[in-house]
Specification:
The protein has 280 residues and is an all-alpha fold. The protein has one domain. It has nine helices and no strands. The longest helix has 40 residues. It is globular, with a radius of gyration of 22 Å.
Length: 280
């Protein structure tokens, strides 16, 4: 009974975390303060989630360099470590660029691309994490459906196809590629500007550019987008529709990465099986 309650608690906690996380990827889906406070709450739930699984993590950590440990456990352990780093870095950079908390720094525009980068990496890792637990989640979800077994499988497959299609569509329309490449673009921009104007600048990077062009300036232009000048931004009005849209968009993207992990695992299994057959 205690184990069943713990399982239900984990599923409920993970569901709340996933939905709240999805809302974080559109910072004005409700308001910027909700985005920042909600991010801190999400991180607290994430730490609670890890606390509930601490015995497993501690046990695997003690065997991580031993030969007998299954590859799946090693990958799961590595994903958890990378996810912890990504989530911690997302929160840390978020505090440095905060607009409502007294933790922001003057050079926030240099940190912002990293905030996006780690947030995007966290969503990918969460998808992989879900994929590693796909069989368990599949069993739990199907057992909770008030449908006959065959009907439940048909419904589950149809729902999965729908979610994957929407996830692929959402991924093409999202800023994922820009989030992942942002830190490297600003580093390249810094290097190019430094080489171009090194004779004129003693080292104060904040004054590079005049805001008329894109880059890292503090001017008032509408450049290509890493400057501190005001830029045009689409601000959504808080609504149930926008909230639901954010949830479905980024949950479907996470499920897409989970499915890709499952397919990769199956392909790896088939390749290993083929090698065994060849040896025999």
């Amino acid at each position: 009974m205690r184990s069943a309650r713990k399982t239900i608690l984990k599923i409920f906690l993970d569901t709340v975390m996933l939905l709240l996380l999805a809302m974080m990827y559109q910072k004005r889906v409700i308001c910027i303060r909700f985005h920042e406070i909600g991010g801190l709450i999400l991180f607290g739930l994430f730490l609670l989630h890890n606390g509930l699984n601490w015995k497993w993590f501690k046990g695997v950590s003690s065997k991580i360099f031993q030969r007998g440990l299954p590859l799946r456990s090693r990958v799961n352990w590595l994903v958890n470590v990378l996810l912890f780093i990504s989530m911690t870095a997302t929160i840390g950079t978020g505090l440095l660029i905060s607009k409502t908390l007294p933790t922001s720094i003057q050079q926030a525009y240099l940190v912002k691309p990293w905030h996006y980068f780690f947030a995007a990496a966290a969503l990918i890792l969460i998808g992989i994490h879900l994929g590693l637990h796909w069989k368990y989640l599949h069993h739990v979800l199907l057992s909770r459906l008030p449908l006959p077994q065959r009907a439940g499988k048909v419904f589950g497959c149809a729902l999965l196809v729908l979610v994957l299609t929407f996830g692929a569509y959402s991924l093409t329309l999202s800023h994922f590629s820009a989030w992942l490449s942002g830190p490297f673009q600003i580093s390249s921009a810094l290097s190019e500007r430094h080489q171009q104007f090194s004779a004129e600048l003693p080292g104060d990077l904040e004054h590079i550019g005049d805001g008329k062009q894109g880059g890292i300036s503090k001017g008032s232009g509408h450049g290509a987008g890493m400057g501190k000048g005001p830029q045009s931004e689409i601000v959504q009005q808080p609504s149930i529709q926008n909230t639901f849209s954010a949830m479905t968009t980024y949950v479907s993207i996470a499920v897409l990465f989970a499915w890709l992990e499952v397919m990769f695992e199956k392909m790896l299994f088939l390749v290993q099986g083929a090698k065994v057959l060849r040896r025999n």
